[in-house]
Amino acid sequence: MMGTLRGLRSVHEPRQVPPEVEKLNYAIRLPGGVSCVGTARSAVRSLVTRHDLGELSDTAALAVSELVACAHWFTPDKEMMLKIRWQFGALRIVVYDQHPLHSSPEVSEECRRRRSRGMWLLAAAVGTCGGDWGLTPVMTSAGGSKSWALLPG
Question: What's the pTM?
Answer without folding.
Answer: 0.84
